[in-house]
Give the backbone structure.
Amino acid sequence: MINLIHQLSATRQAIGLSQEALAMQAGLSRMTVQRTESGNIDPRLSSLIVMARAMDMELMLVPSAIRPDLEEFARSGGKFLGQPEGVGAPASIVDDLLAAAPGSSQR
C-alpha cells in the first residue's frame, strides 16, 4: 500500500497538481490527500481510486497468484505470454498502438 500511495503522490507532483487541486478533482478534502500522502492515515480504497481517476489513472487489483505473469507480460511490451520473441512473434497491442499513433513511421 505504501508503494501505491508513493506512486500516486509522485504522479500528482509530476503532472503539476497541488494537493488542493487533486482533492477538488477527486471530491476529497485537501487534508485527506495530505494525510494519505504523508502516511498519517490508512486510506480507504475508494479514496485511492478517486485520487487515481482524477489523474487519469486506473487502479487494478491483481490476485497475488497471477502478479508475476502480469508483470512479465507488461515487461514484454504486451506480447502474448508463451509466444516467441523476435520477428516471428505476433504483434502486441503496444505495437498496434504505436503504429496507429499520429505521425508514426511504423505504418
